[in-house]
Design brief:
The chain is 59% helix and 14% strand. The strands form 2 sheets. The chain has a 4-stranded antiparallel β-sheet, with no helix packed on it. It has 9 helices and 7 strands. It is of the alpha+beta class.
Length: 310
């Protein structure tokens, strides 16, 4: 039950968390493709950006811990318990028959259980019940030989009890790791939000001089639709010496796209509909390049474009 509750908790909590993390990713990718000359001139901006990037790295690490497949442990635990229950019931029936034949009513009452009642008890009660069956059977081991209860059978039963107990401890350890990771992620998200609040104020300084950059920044910061604005295409613009080319004009009339690459020669295009589209890449001093790109829904297409001097 604890696994089911934990999975439900994570699914509800992670919906908002993942949307926020996605927003962090989109905004960072947007800034990576922006013109660094704009950012470098903003007081305090790089400090905020570096802190956010560092926190994003930590979030990814904690997210891996948080999303370990605890369901796998639940499945393994159930499998071990089913096997343990089967062996426990077999031994219990044999000991109960022995108790009935010898008139040992106390042993008969102590050893009796049904599969339905066994399935209803808790994990710790399951271990306790199996320990009790094992102890009773071991006590009368010599007398139980005609009933098919052997030392080898009890040894296997004990191994299953230990295996199940270890699985419970291991599962709890995974749960604790997940809880710690969840707490760490919450702290890192809070830290990033504080940095973004500072960055928002700084970016507004460019509202009149670089409105396209400002609009793109705040579009990426829209957390409510972050999960629904996947990046469709990522262009990398290089010269024939593999050096990034900034300020390349990327256009597509059909999609009404007219954007320039940042200092790193990168540009991200989001929410491009499915289909094939021809993009034009131009910059003074370079030969114009045209490329047809096939866009697939919910997938990002990375395109490297090489431009040569004209």
């Amino acid at each position: 039950m604890i696994f089911i509750n934990l999975i439900i908790y994570y699914s509800k909590m992670k919906k908002n968390q993942n949307q926020t993390i996605r927003m962090f990713q989109l905004t960072s990718e947007y800034l990576d493709g922006a013109d660094n000359t704009l950012i470098n001139g903003l007081p305090g901006f790089l400090e905020c950006q570096n802190e956010i990037n560092l926190n994003n790295t930590k979030i990814r690490s904690q997210y891996d811990l948080q999303t370990r497949k605890i369901t796998g442990f639940a499945v393994e635990k159930k499998s071990i318990r089913n096997e343990l229950t089967s062996v426990a019931l077999d031994i219990s029936n044999r000991v109960e028959l022995f108790a009935s034949n010898t008139g040992n009513q106390e042993l008969k009452n102590d050893i009796h259980f049904t599969i339905s009642s066994f399935n209803k008890i808790s994990e710790n009660e399951c271990v306790s019940k199996c320990d009790n069956i094992y102890t009773n059977a071991l006590t009368f081991l010599t007398e139980l030989e005609p009933y098919g209860v052997t030392a080898a059978l009890l040894s296997n039963f004990q191994d299953l009890i230990i295996k199940y107990t270890n699985n419970l401890s291991r599962s709890q350890s995974e749960i604790n790791i997940g809880k710690i990771a969840t707490s760490e992620i919450a702290n890192l998200i809070s830290a990033n939000q504080q940095q973004f609040e500072k960055m928002d104020l700084i970016v507004k300084m460019l509202k009149s001089t670089a409105p396209e950059f400002v609009n793109g920044y705040f579009e990426s910061r829209n957390i409510n639709s972050a999960a629904y604005r996947p990046i469709s295409i990522r262009f990398f613009l290089f010269d024939n010496f593999s050096k990034p080319i900034p300020m390349v004009l990327v256009t597509n009339e059909e999609l009404k796209i007219r954007r320039r690459t940042g200092e790193k020669g990168i540009i991200y295009l989001k929410n491009i509909k499915e289909g094939s589209f021809e993009f034009t890449f131009s910059k003074v001093g370079y030969a114009t390049v045209k490329r047809v790109v096939n866009v697939t829904p919910n997938e990002r297409t990375d395109i490297k474009v090489v431009m040569v001097l004209d």
